[in-house]
Amino acid sequence: MPVLQPIVNIAELIYRKGITDVVISPGSRSAPLTIAVARHPGLRTRVVADERSAGFVALGMAMQSGRPVAVICTSGSAVYNLAPAVAEAYFAEVPLLLLTADRPHEWLYQQDGQTMVQAGVFGPHVKRSYDLPADYTHADSRWFIERSVNEAVNLSRLAPAGPVHINVPLREPFYPAPGDELTFEPVRLIETLATTAQLPTDVWHRLLDEWDDTDRKLIAVGQMPYNPALLAVLHKISEELGVPVVGELPGNIGQNGLFITRTDTFLSGADETLLDSLRPDLLITLGGSFLTRNLKTYFRQHPARGRHWHIGPDASRISDPFRSLSTLVPMEPLPFLEKLFADLDYQRFRQGDDDSEESFAFRELWQQADRRAARVIAQSLAYSAFTDWTATQALMDTLPHGSVLHLANSMPVRYANLCGLPADRQVAVCANRGVSGIDGCLSTAVGAALQTDRTVTVLIGDVAFFYDRNALWHAQLPPNLRIVLLNNHAGHIFRMIDGPSRQPELDEFFETEQPLTAARTAEDAQIAYLFADNPAGLEQALQGFFSPSETAKLLEIRTDKRVNEQEFKRYKERLREG
Fold first, then answer.
1. Where is the Thiamine pyrophosphate enzyme N-terminal TPP-binding domain (predicted)?
2. Which of 65, 195, 281, 575 meets the CB 3.0–4.6 Å disulfide criterion with 216?
3. Exposure string (b/e) for 359-382, b if CB count within 10 Å is 16 or more?
4. Domain span at residue 138?
């Protein structure tokens, strides 16, 4: 049979190792892989013709499920189209298994079509790249393939999770004859057991001593998936121990009256006296990157006076964005914080000690600044004309309880962060903040919606939307997807940044004005289309926007870029006025 058994076994092996979803971009060289997964009874396949979009759809699926998703594409330049999603997955620590079909290597540089150097093509942006042999008959080859696929799937999951590449050279013929059936043989599974990091007793006691020696402690949460258990322990630490917890919307730190979520506002233009008073003695960070420049700049210019711990499972790399790291704790944040709180709580019980008044006073300083920022934001929205920001606030006010929100990069994620979300809404927030590009935000949301029955809403700007509209060129577009498009007909963020906004080339070379609307895109994708360009129209459109339907829905909100700019400047003026 033309489809060789070791290729068929790849499908069986990834299924036995827990992969259930495969995203396929059609091609001829990849036909043996495609046929093997398509005929496997346990694998769920989805076809996305555009490889760049396919990579991001798989990213969104893996981000939503927490499990590796496999991607199959044909040889040649098709492989390079996966690169943006691969880079995002690598830095966002999302598991992907990339299966790229290839020509046998002896045909390199022989003027053969769709042939290029594919082994190691993703460079340092995958955890590892495997290159399988082109000949499958020898027992050593079969053993190597089985071992490599086992290792690749295991590696994609091991912390930090990420993409792994398997390059698969294939010879003709590619297609089984009519009536040929594939046999999924038993395969050998090689398991890599997970371990739970536990600090030695003396090291743990040293950390507890450092905690006890400082009164002004602060926990800053970077980008993280929504985790109710983690939020619960952070709430207890802040409420009972007087520790301010600082975070942003991509870190899933909701507004609950306790956490500090408006740092981008109150750190902008604050006087040196306030900034110095907010400086901790012990800074504890967890999660990935932080969104706003104001928060990152603050901790770089006002580092912790004593110690800075970072809590995360990856001990292989020192991540020090605030240039103040003193201790890397190689543990998952949840068990570390649970043990920390339990030990401190027991210590208080045994010794009868109350937490120092200075700790609670320090937390109150951060909370006061947060409350002042909330008033500035409320005033800015109350007296604003119709803008992207007011439209974002209207959307945030109507998101369904327990739904999923994907935020596209550029201004949408920043507007949403300014608005915030009440914690009791239990909305899980996601964003492509690994590399922070606009190139696959819509496709990522499509992938997420394919993996859940919950409503998935993506808030996206016009440049990101039209750049990635092949995400909607998809035969299985999920009906639980809701797209909210902020269309100001330009790259709006460049009007908000001081550098490009002052240049005479702004209109032509930075904003890239465009006259497009999404009406025909929605029609082509056969999804419901709504439009609003004023507050009343937006309120009416949102009334039934999240109700169940047979198709996805797209709400296009048109605003004036110059009004957006004027209102944002007024917000900045309110900040300066205090």
1. 10-114
2. 281
3. beebbeebbebbebbbebbeebbe
4. 5-169
Q: How many domains are contained in the chain?
A: 3
In a domain, 112, yes or no: yes
Residue 121 lies in a domain: yes
User: Do 426 and 400 lie in a common domain?
Assistant: yes
Q: What is the pLDDT of residue 411?
A: 93
Q: What is the pLDDT of residue 136?
A: 84
Residue 237 contacts by C-beta under 8 Å, 6 or more apart in sequence? 219, 243, 245, 337, 340, 341
Same domain, 355 and 407: no
Statement to judge: residues 509 and 560 lie in one domain: yes
Instruction: Give the pairing type, strands 327-329 and 21-24.
Output: unpaired
Residues of the chain with pLDDT under 50: 1
Query: Between the CA of residue 541 and those of 275, 397, 556, what are the distances in Å?
Result: 42, 14, 10
Quick one: pLDDT at residue 321?
93
Q: What is the pLDDT of residue 293?
A: 92
Asked if residue 219 and residue 286 are part of one domain, the reply reads: yes
What confidence score (pLDDT) does residue 463 get? 94
What pTM was computed for the model? 0.95
Give the pLDDT confidence score for residue 443 in this predicted structure. 98
Query: What is the rounded distance in angstroms from the CA atom of residue 241 to the CA atom of residue 223?
Result: 24
- Bridge-partner residues for 457, per DSSP? 405, 482
Q: What percentage of the chain's residues is helix, strand, coil (to nearest 5)?
A: 45, 15, 40
Is the Cα dihedral 271, 274, 276, 281 positive or negative?
Answer: negative
